[in-house]
Amino acid sequence: MSDREILRNHIEQTVQLSDEQFDYFFSFLKPVSFKRKQSVINIGDRVVCEYFVLNGCLKTFFVNDEQKMHILQFATKTWWASDYDALHNNKKATVNLDCVIDTNALCLFSEDREKVCKEIHEIETFLRWRSNKGYIGLQKRILSLLNNDARSRYEQLMQQYPDLYNLVPKHLIAAYLGVSRETLSRLYQVK
User: Fold this and answer.
1) What integer best gives the mean pLDDT of the chain?
2) Whole-prediction pTM
3) Exposed site from 43, 85, 89, 98, fewest CB < 10 Å?
């Protein structure tokens, strides 16, 4: 499936676009490729775009004062990723975004996003829907961290995103779940 088809299928799960509308929106997206472990956004950077993942995997994370990594999000095929606080509020990045495995994505610059949203109501609707869905996912994740034990969080993650297990190193899954790699191995005999 081509990049255009992947994006169009993703959008049309929410809104329908004419060929002209889609072509116009697609003209604003720039293809980018990242290599494994490549930094995309670093804390302190000025953030000017968001990324639609075509294949591969990005991770959003920060490292605390004790040098412990906390993963906020994995972005795999058809997911979007950025530091949204920095992007929408013209702030410097407060999280890092890097590449877990080689990744191809489409980059949408903030000013282009605003332009196309003003011109195509369906795109604005799609992007609002996507933001709402992301907020709901974040809320569910926070509730899971507050209420569920490590085993339940792991099982929920694997049920929601079964391909993640084969894409992401286990130490990163442990960091996402808020447990040590050793705990993850002990609980699930993950090799």
Assistant:
1) 92
2) 0.91
3) 89
